Give the backbone structure.
Amino acid sequence: MSTDLTREELLRYSRHLILPEVGLEGQKKLKAASVLLVGAGGLGSPAALYLAAAGVGRIGIVDFDRVDASNLHRQIIHGTSDVGRSKLDSAAESILDINPNVQVDKHEVMLSSENALDIVEDYDIVVDGTDNFPTRYLVNDACVLLGKMNFYGSIFRFEGQATVFCAPGGPCYRCLYPEPPPPGMVPSCAEGGVLGVLPGIIGLIQATEAVKFLLGKGRSLVGRLMLYDALDMSFRELRIKRDPSCPICGDNPTISALIDYNQFCGLPSHPEPTGTEIEVPELKAMMSRKDDFTLIDVREPDEFEVDRIPGSVLIPLGQVPERLSELDRSALTVVHCRSGIRSAKACTILREAGFKKVLNLKGGILEWNRNFDHHEPT
C-alpha cells in the first residue's frame, strides 16, 4: 500500500499535518503502520476508533465474541442494532465509517498458544485489550518472543492501569506480575463491575502511546505504570524495571515457546472430574423434591443483590475459609458463582477442610438463568 497521501487524506489529517511533531512525514508513518488490537471490547473500542481516525493504515482485531446488550455501556464501537452480531463485523463497520482508508484485518478466533505467534508476527505493535490473566500472559510472551511492543491497559470498577511493555531494555508483564493471582480471587469486570467511561480513558491512553511510538515522538510509558482512580480523579505513577531473572525477558530466559496459559494461571484445561459437578436441571429437581442440602453463593454482595437462585446463602469466596463453622460438614453442599470458576475454588477449600459431599454448579447462575429465569438480568 502506498504511503502517499491523497487529496482527501490531506484534508482529513490537516490538523495533524500542521503539528510540527507529526507533519507530512509523520502522517505517512502512521499510514504505513500496522497495529494488532487484542479484543474489541471496552479497551479495544476507543483504541480502535482513534487509531483509525488518526490514520493508522492497517488495524487487525482479534475477537471471537458477539455483541451483548451488557457490552453497550462501555464498548462504544458497537451500537444497539449490533446486539447479536459478531464483534469483529460490528467493529470493522464502525472503523470504516470513521476512516474508509484503513485496512481492517479480522481474526475471528480465540487467541491461543497455537495461533498467537502467527497472528502477532504480522503487525508492528500490539494493543492489549484483554480482560483475563491467561491471555495477558499469552500476549506478553508472544510479544517478547517476536520483539513486538505491547501497549497494555487494564480496568476494574473505578480504577485503571496503563503502560508499555516489551520495549528494548524495558520490563514485560511478567516483570510486574511474575505469578498470576489464585483463580477466582480477582473478579472480572462481569463479576465486579466497571464504570462505563473508564475503559474509554484507559483505551485512549493506550492509543495515544501507540501513536507516539509510531511517530517516534514524546516520552513513553516504558518503565512507568500509570494508575488512574476515577472516583478520586487522580493519576499517579509507579516506576517498574526489567527483572534480570524474568523467565522470558531476563538475562537467562527459561521460556522459549508459548505454554499452556490456563494451566499456568491455575484454571482447569479440562472439565472437573465426574462426581464433582452438578447440572442445573438436577439442582432444580432437588429443589422441587425439597431434598436436604445447602446451596452456597460465593459471589459478591452486589451481585447477589441483583440476582440470586432461590434459597441460596451468600458467602463470598474470600470469606469461605473463615465461615466454615457455619456449615455442616456432613451435609450435601452445592456451591455456585456466576459461571463456575469461583465456585470451583470454593469447592476445593471445602473439600480440603473435610467436607465430604460438595458439588459445583456447572455454568453457575448464568446457566440457571438460561434454563429457568429468562427474565432475570445477568
Summary: Residues 198-215 form the longest helix (18 residues). The chain is about 35% helix and 15% strand. Residues 43 and 129 are 5 Å apart (CA to CA). Residues 277-371 form a domain with the Oxidized Rhodanese; domain 1 fold (CATH 3.40.250.10).
